[in-house]
Amino acid sequence: MENKQIAHLLHETADLMEVAGEDGFRIRSYRNAAAVISGYPERITDIVCNPEKKVTDIPGIGKGIAFVLAEICERGSFERRDQMLAKYPASALELLKIQGLGPKSIALLYEHHGVKSVDDLERICHDHKLREMPRMGAKLEEKVLRSIEAYRKSAGRFLLSFGRRTADNLIEEFRALPGIERVEAAGSLRRGRETIGDLDILVTGPGAAEALNRIVAHPASQELLGQGQNKASVTFGMERLQVDVRALPHESFGAAMQYFTGSKEHNVALRTDAIKQGLTLNEYGLFAVGGNQRVAGETEIEVYERLGYAWIPPEIRENCGEFEAARNGTLPHLIELGEVRGDLHMHTTATDGRATLREMADAAAALGYEYIAITDHSKALAMANGLDEERVKSFAREVRELNRDGLPLRVFSGLECDILRDGDMDIAEDALAELDLVIGSVHSYFNLESREMTDRLMRALESPSLRILGHATGRILLQREAYSFDFDRIASKAAERGVFLEINASPERLDLPSHLVRAAKSKGCKFTISTDAHRTAHLHNMRYGVITARRGWLEASDVLNTLPLTEFEARLRNLP
Ligand code: DGT
Ligand code: CA
Ligand code: CA
Ligand code: ZN
User: Fold this and answer.
1) Which residues place a Cβ less than 5 A from the ion ligand 3?
2) Domain boundary among 281, 311, 328
3) 527 forms bridges with which residues in the sheet?
4) Which one of 81, 91, 148, 379 is CB 3.0 to 4.6 Å from 386, fit for a cystine?
5) Is residue 225 part of a domain?
6) What is the pLDDT of residues 477-509, one digit of tens each?
7) DSSP-H helix ranges across 262-348
8) Which of 80-94, 113-127, 207-221, 251-265 has the least mean pLDDT?
9) Same domain, yes or no, for 66 and 173?
10) What is the Å distance from ligand 4's center to 379 Cα?
11) How many CB atoms lie under 10 A from the CB of residue 253?
12) Is residue 204 within 8 Å of 247, Cβ to Cβ?
């Protein structure tokens, strides 16, 4: 089990204990342990299983938690959690995912109205009973209804990064089987959607049927959903992600990749066009109508070309203008990971990161970057030990010196400066001016009215030192909706002021969302793509930022951190 999953079990149990109104000490100890574990560099299960090591050597892990961890590693749950789940139905855990309601409110609603599930909650909101509860009110009732809707939309979906890791492991296993020609992931994963519903894996070669057997017999497979000659479906892993594996004849592989990559809207449009041209398109190939004569199918390119289109990159197959561009030869040359020359948003041990500046620099240099910016938090994030003016200034000095005595790549001094409630920067202008690059981000007061939030961001965009607007919508995928504001006004203002919009590559954010990337580009905005790394491993998340940029139709020339060092630096200094 991964550390994140262990932390999740502890949090969940703590939440349920809070709903039950239990003693705060135990609850806090579970939460503290969860925080330690989710940030711990080694796998906790490896430590628990290793007789030479002791989990209690980890700061923050006491004897009580050590017992819990041993139990989790042995059987995937622990006594306290089982007790809580016996007391409250599993559906109560769902309630905790509804934004706006904490465990205390849920406990109240349970007590007074017997609310045990999301459906119950929805009902009492519709009956206007929630607004009558102490300290809840009509506004919260509306918010809860909106949260329920968002929750239902995201239920059963998974982060792109999780899908990618699971798919990569399976693909590697399948490729090692005898008689396999090709194994590829299709579906929303290949299109790079921010969340995926299931995995679609395609296999060809004489051994393809073995891949079907392999997934069915896989130790991590939970439930067999179906197995036929050409297809097997299972739920996979603890998370029960659905995996569909399809075996295909060699000559159909391209047509199948096209079909199963989707999107559905893209496919419907392409098939309709084929029919107009007197052809039939399906997952086995492109056929002349009437006959069984296959005119294309072995590769995707020949399918598109035979229909009069250039090959369309999967990320933009959403029936949003790609066909026109592919017919007219005006498809964008989408940005590629290899074109990114630096990472402009990361944290270090100076605030809430886990690696030092030098460790981050070494790791970034190993990725082949020419430069990075270190952008720790500002003082409003007191919990993260954010920098005040004095520390900002001495940090800028320190970076100037470090660059002189030989870092493995060029480091720019930056800051992820909080945008305060009224749109002011958290750090005084004279201190900001010492830095090479300032990102402005919202980390508080997410619930402002749209007007107020828009004004706040408009005001921040006036700040003389601001270069980049960080994770502009504030969404956390599958957890927190974007806050409401007038994106068009913000994008126009950013374009006018020459402020770059960040595409935050952290898999939980992918913020800006790709449709807003495209909208902002049409307003003349330029972008940065950065990982917001809090440890060296996070630097690898750049790929998810790039895929989001591609879904937003960006080319390298739209993205600041594709510039070579000297041009990049000139661009930083000469901004309006
Ligand atoms: P997901 O799994 O919800 O993240 O999204 P997709 O796009 O991976 O959807 P999925 O797994 O249901 O199907 C994979 C692809 O197969 C989909 O993108 C397009 C194709 N497909 C599925 N059902 C249909 C259909 O009814 N008509 C057409 N034309 N294509 C379909
Ligand atoms: Ca899928
Ligand atoms: Ca599927
Ligand atoms: Zn941030």
Assistant:
1) 198, 200, 244
2) 328
3) 501, 559
4) 379
5) yes
6) 988 889 999 999 999 999 999 999 999 999 999
7) 264-276, 300-306, 322-328
8) 80-94
9) no
10) 13
11) 22
12) yes
- Do 284 and 406 sit in the same domain of this protein? no
Structure tokens, 395: 């940090």
What's the total number of domains in the chain?
4
CB atoms within 10 A of CB 137: 13
How many angstroms does the Cα of residue 346 sit away from the middle of ligand 3? 35
- 548 shares a domain with 459: yes
Take residue 270 and report the two structure tokens written for it: 């392409």
Which residue matches tokens 């089990």? 1
Per DSSP (E only), the strands in 87-176 are 158-159
Q: Which of 210, 227, 248 is the last residue of a domain?
A: 248
- CA 10/CA 317 separation, integer angstroms: 40
Cα distance between the two ends of the chain: 51
Task: Look up residue 493 and give its amino acid.
Answer: K
Give me ligand 2 centre to Cα 150, in Å. Answer: 20
The residue whose C-alpha atom lies closest to atom 18 belonging to ligand 1 is 262
- The CATH code of the domain that includes 287 is 3.30.210.10
Which ligand is in closest contact with the Cα of 502? Answer: 4
Of all protein residues, whose CA lies closest to atom 21 belonging to ligand 1? Answer: 264
Distance in Å, CA 143 to ligand 4 centroid? 24
- Does residue 45 have a pLDDT over 70? yes
Residue 376's nearest CA partner among 356, 359, 402 is 356
